[in-house]
Amino acid sequence: MKKMRTLLGLALAVGAALSMTAPAFASDYSFATTAPQDYYGSTSYEDVYGAQYNYGGRNAADYDVPELEYGRMTTTQTGIMERTILPGLQGAVVDDSGSYGIGDEGSSPLTKLVIDGSGGSGPVITPTTPTVQQPIYTSVPGMVRADGSIGTLSIPKLGISVKVWEGETNASMAKGVGHYSSTSGWQGNIGLCGHNRGARYNIGTIKNLKPGDIITYTTIYGTRTYEVTMVKTISNTDWSYLQGTADNRITITTCLENQPAKRICVQAVEKSS
């Protein structure tokens, strides 16, 4: 009986406590957040210039001309392609004094003024009109030899002499080296590729070439001798060295041992006789 009274008293106490609890509503709470900082300001004309736009008449925006830094001619930013000289993009300019253009470091600009001091009253500046040489290219289909190959690559220093087959494919490299189908077959920039190891035909030792070493390439058009000018490790996504050129050169790539994201790239330019 005493136990029942205790339980009843406890139940009554809990009920009284619950009846005194005030109900909670959404209005009883307040939330504070930090305003985001990554929004741009208003671009409304009225917000920017403090006046309505006058259609057909002059507006404040007409006088909002950006101030140029001293020595600058334009607000246009030079793009990365204009700032960077890609070794595969050799657009040459030829005039009476020789050729110049986009090439190796130290080359002359594409514009040129001729100063003639024979006028008597002072030098006469005459702008010349240079001739820009376009990349040269030879189509491959007409170069196929009786055995199906399109050429023979020889590197005497490394003891390499292999046939060249059309296409940068495993099938081509299983028979020798492959020819990048997007590049020229003879005139201009010839692009070749091969295995670096683990195959019957491999050219991995091209990493040991030095500037000045000799490479020869033979096709139905004859044999051309090239002199190595560059041996470089590049990214496997860097195709700039396969761009068309106005001069005759050969570009050879192969994988780099244990570095799948890298390639060895060798470039050689036709050796003058």
Low-confidence stretches: 73-111
Output mean pLDDT: 76
- Bin the strand percentage: 25-35%
Q: How many DSSP H or I helices?
A: 4
Query: How many strands, which pairing sense, and closed or not: the largest β-sheet?
Result: 8 strands, mixed, barrel
Residue share in helix = 10-25%
Count the E strands: 13
Textual characterization of the structure:
The chain is mainly beta. Among the domains are: 47 residues, no CATH class; 130 residues, Sortase, Chain: A. The chain has 4 helices and 13 strands. The protein has an 8-stranded mixed β-barrel with strand order 6-7-8-9-12-13-11-10. Strands 2-1-5 form a 3-stranded antiparallel beta sheet, with no helix packed on it. A two-stranded antiparallel ribbon has the order 3-4. The protein is flat, with a radius of gyration of 37 Å.
SSE topology:
Blueprint: H1 2-19, H2 45-49, H3 80-83, E1 92-95, E2 98-101, E3 113-116, E4 124-127, E5 131-133, E6 151-155, E7 160-166, H4 170-173, E8 177-179, E9 189-194, E10 214-219, E11 222-235, E12 249-256, E13 259-270
Parallel strand pairs: 7-8, 9-12
Antiparallel strand pairs: 1-2, 1-5, 3-4, 6-7, 6-10, 8-9, 10-11, 11-13, 12-13
Descriptive tags:
273 residues; mainly beta; Sortase, Chain: A; 3-stranded antiparallel β-sheet; 29% strand
